[in-house]
Design a protein that fits this description.
With 411 residues, this protein is an alpha+beta fold. The chain is built from 15 helices and 13 strands. The chain has two domains: 207 residues, no CATH class; 192 residues, no CATH class. The two termini are 29 Å apart.
Length: 411
């Protein structure tokens, strides 16, 4: 059993060489701070990816006619969309559901024509939070469109300008009409920024001869963990049985793998924390042990058992480790707390002050990250360092346990 006097002596011994103890504490604290800062940033960036996927791009669940996703053919449509949306929106887990049309066209703001993609959207749905037009305040008027900012730059289009759109209807007819550019937008979806011409769903259905038909339906749930159960319920609906219904994890497994890899980033930093703990504690305790040979000999000569010396050294190791983790945790928690509201602009790290997002697999991933911590982030460092502290103390403890009293007193 560990005596309270042993703990007091161990605590006192930490102050024998304050500079060396401080260096060991600093190494562990810096490692723990790096662990929490890295985990906070990774959690924040993973949130950006999930919100970009389940918000503007594909929702929590999406459905379409089999083959459409691979072929993107105009005639692979979801028919009777009004009745299907009524069934979907009646589910209590559904926050909103919007239908979309994607159609390749030629766009001519003046004389030259450029390849583009018309994106027909349910404007009231997509204007809500996490929608493709979440910043939009007023609905589109008749014959009004929005253009992605990169497409507008490429074709030299301007607000208020007329633009001719020519494509093909689902019945094989020529689809063409003249529209007014209401605004130039920056969308969370890269396809809109690069080549998108956004119009209301009703106008797109009229232009491409798609009465009550769309190419896919995007569903957002009230809670992200409801996607799997919702998809299962919708697959059992007879009216939806002919459609391909996928959760966001099934639709883009590559991104799910990326998120899983990001979750393991913390373990890499944790290994570095453990290395710092081993190096700092083992060095501190070994030097302290050799400096106190005479004292240990005296204790043994007065009747102290070797086990008490071992316990003393192990307590010193745990104290150094735990104190270092506490200091590092306070610093790391302070960093995350201080940046959780304002966020961290990762774009500025690479000297690209004008770049605000990163395009990946058709998604625009914001580089402004809002760090956050999860409950086990701090605990992981504390438990790991406590265990490593015990391991690091084994060598100096074994040296102390084998001491002969007379020989140690002569040292």
């Amino acid at each position: 059993m560990l005596h309270w006097s042993t703990i007091r002596i161990a605590w006192r011994n930490l102050g024998r060489n304050r500079k060396r103890t401080a260096l060991a504490l600093l190494a562990i604290a810096v490692g723990q701070f790096a662990l929490l800062a890295a985990n906070g940033m990774m959690h924040g960036y993973a949130d950006n990816i999930r919100l970009a996927i389940t918000g503007p791009m594909i929702g929590h669940v999406q459905m379409y006619t089999p083959g459409w996703r691979d072929e993107q053919a105009m005639d692979l449509v979801v028919t009777g969309v009004s009745s299907k949306l009524s069934i979907i929106r009646a589910d209590p887990a559904v926050m909103n559901a919007g239908a979309r049309i994607y159609a390749p066209v030629l766009a001519a703001p003046e004389h030259d024509a450029f390849a583009a993609v018309v994106v027909g959207l349910d404007i009231p749905v997509e204007s809500q939070e996490y929608g493709m037009l979440s910043n939009m305040k007023e609905p589109l008027g008749l014959k009004e469109v929005l253009i992605g900012y990169r497409l507008a730059r490429r074709i030299k289009a301007e607000r208020g300008q007329k633009i001719a759109i020519v494509g093909q209807g689902t019945d094989g007819s020529i689809a063409n009409d003249l529209y007014t550019i209401r605004d130039i937008i920056k969308s969370p979806a890269d396809i809109v920024n690069q080549a998108g011409i956004v119009m209301s769903l009703a106008e797109a259905q009229q232009l491409f001869v798609m009465p009550d038909s769309v190419h896919n339906i995007v569903i957002r749930t009230k809670e992200s963990d409801q996607a799997d159960e919702l998809a299962e319920r919708l697959r059992k609906q007879a009216i939806l049985s002919s459609l391909k219904i996928l959760t966001w994890k099934e639709a883009i497994p590559e991104v799910v793998q990326l998120l899983n890899v990001m979750d393991y980033t913390g373990y890499i930093v944790l290994v570095l924390v453990m290395i710092a703990a081993v190096a700092g504690i083992a060095n501190t305790l070994m030097m302290s042990t050799f400096e106190r040979m005479h004292e240990f000999g005296m204790l043994l000569a007065l009747g102290s058992r070797p086990g008490r010396l071992v316990g003393m050294i192990m307590v010193e190791a745990i104290l150094i480790g735990v104190l270092g983790v506490i200091i590092g945790s306070l610093l790391g928690f302070g960093f995350v707390l201080g940046t959780s509201q304002s966020g961290v602009n990762m774009a500025s790290w690479g000297g690209q002050g004008e770049m605000e997002d990163l395009a990946y697999m058709g998604l625009n991933l914001p580089l402004h990250v809002y760090p956050r911590l999860e409950g086990d982030d701090i605990v992981a460092g504390l438990v790991a360092v406590a265990l490593v502290s015990l391991i690091a103390s084994l060598w100096p403890a074994s040296v102390a346990a084998r001491l002969e009293p007379m020989e140690a007193m002569r040292t």
